[in-house]
Amino acid sequence: MGSSRNPFPTRGACAKAGRVSHMFTGTFTAIVTPFHQGKVDEAALTRLIRAQIKGGVSGIVPVGTTGESPTLDFDEHIRVIELAVKVADGRIPVIAGTGANSTREAIYLTQRAETVGAHASLQVAPYYNKPSQEGLYEHFKAIAQSTRLPLMLYSIPGRCGIEIGIDTVIRLATDCPTVVSIKEAGGSCDRVSQLRAALPPKFTILSGDDSLALPFMSVGASGVVSVASNVAPRAVSQMVSRFLAGDLRGARKLHAKLFPLFRNLFVESNPVPVKAALALLGQMEAEVRLPLVPASAHCRTIVEQTLRDLGMLA
Fold first, then answer.
1. Could you tell me what percent of the chain has a pLDDT over 90?
2. What pLDDT sits at residue 19?
3. What is the rounded average pLDDT of the residues 229-233?
């Protein structure tokens, strides 16, 4: 990928947060990892990424929760990032999910992601081992010091059992110039308001939930890391871009139209329903890896009807 085609700062250019904050505005698809007979389906992933670019998303986030990162081995994990970078070809940024509940593992994955050309890294709060806020601070600080990639923190207490405290986010934003954004999936507009009031304008906040994208943007968020945009990239992108452009009525209209999709893609554990939706649309197989299992008949019925109601299936 030639640097002349890449409008996104990488490596040494990422040292100043002001140069990269624009990267974290808009719609970022938390893209699924397609499988075929137990292996990563690279052809399907390539098609999906091209569809995201055509749909106008601001960027993609491979190997996050929606990408089933816990079930990928290290080589698969990095290969998915490498392929995403290759297919994106500088047209949109690739924000690689490289977080872990082991700091050494997160550093290893982040450095490898940087080597294969990722533009930024998504860093989830360590799960299961439940570190203190001081432990969280030291964890993210160590990762930031190990790479020149800009980092997006990811607070999702429903999955991790802890949230990244507001004071911890402030400390990291102050002490680590490349910690420039947070994906907020705690479900609280109050928390977004508190974060926005406490952080500099160049530090961006993204909703981690499609259904809360508009409420969060109304109090200072600048976009969404979206599951639904796997299925409807153009519509979700338009909803966000209309809001950011001041077209509140148009954004609310799209939110109302898309809300059943936002809701029904979570009738079972993510990414089971969204993979079922993409399979119904003929874009990939619905295969997931254990301990996830394929969508139940009830889930498939709900997802199929939702797609029909949106006019996406005949």
1. 91
2. 45
3. 98
Would the CA dihedral through 299, 305, 306, 312 be positive or negative?
positive
- How would you classify the pairing of strands 95-97 and 151-155? unpaired
Annotation says 154 is catalytic? yes
What letter does residue 41 receive in the DSSP assignment? Answer: -
Active-site residue, selected from the candidate residues 183, 202, 253, 257: 183
Q: How confident is the model at residue 23 (pLDDT cuts 50, 70, 90)?
A: confident
Sorted by where each starts, the structural domains of the chain and their CATH numbers stand as 16-247 (3.20.20.70)
Contacts for 4 with CB less than 8 Å, ≥ 6 apart: none
Query: Which DSSP symbol is given to 8?
Result: S
Measured between alpha carbons, how far is 107 from 151 in angstroms, rounded to an integer?
Answer: 12
pTM over 0.90: yes
pLDDT at 261 over 70: yes
38 Cβ contact partners less than 8 Å away, ≥ 6 residues apart: 287, 289
| Gap between the Cα atoms of 66 and 36, Å rounded | 17
Residue 13 near residue 96 (C-beta atoms within 8 A): no
**Is pLDDT above 70 for 95?**
yes
Check 16, 54, 86, 154 and give the catalytic one. 154
Contact 202, 25 (CB under 8 A): no
Other CB atoms within a 10 A radius of the CB of residue 12 amount to 7
Are the CB atoms for 159 and 186 separated by under 8 Å? no
Choose among 143, 179, 258, 173: nearest CA to 211.
258
Within 8 A by CB and 6+ apart from 134, the residues are: none
For residues 57 and 25, give the distance between their C-alpha atoms in angstroms, rounded to a whole number.
Answer: 10
The CA distance from 20 to 123, in Å, is: 16
The answer to whether 152 and 183 have CB atoms below 8 angstroms apart is: yes
CA angle 118/135/166 to nearest 5° reads 80
